[in-house]
Specification:
Elements: E1 3-7, E2 10-12, E3 18-25, E4 32-39, E5 46-52, E6 57-59, E7 67-72, E8 77-82, E9 91-99, E10 104-107, E11 111-115
Length: 117
């Protein structure tokens, strides 16, 4: 059984920063992709950023230059450093783990990020 536990969401003002963390536990193959998605009210869930176990990151265009994804493979943890936050970044942020070898995918419960003055 795989579990993902997110932390780090909260309320910030525009221009401020937040750091999200997601720790994975359970039967995790070392070949995997960890990432962050977000879903704003009334909108579909969308990719924010993801990074493979080999370290190659992919970012959505709307966060390039502002967000940085990183991971600690020894801890099975992925981080999302969010800088220069905008009100449109307000959403529930979900951690995702894709076990490539098994073709299986897992989701965290989400953490709310609110950017408002």
């Amino acid at each position: 059984q795989v579990q993902l536990v997110e932390s780090g969401g909260g309320l910030v003002q525009p221009g401020e920063s937040l750091r999200l963390s997601c720790a994975a536990s359970g039967s995790i193959n070392h070949i995997n992709i960890m990432g962050w998605y977000r879903q704003a009210p009334g909108k579909q869930r969308e990719l924010v950023a993801r990074v493979s176990s080999s370290g190659s990151p992919i970012y959505a265009d709307f966060v390039k230059g502002r967000f940085i994804i990183s991971r600690d493979n020894a801890k099975n943890t992925v981080y999302l450093q969010m800088n220069s936050l905008k009100p449109e970044d307000t959403a529930d942020y979900y951690c995702n783990l894709h076990l490539v070898v098994y073709g299986m995918e897992y989701w965290g419960k989400g953490t709310l990020v609110t950017v408002s003055s």
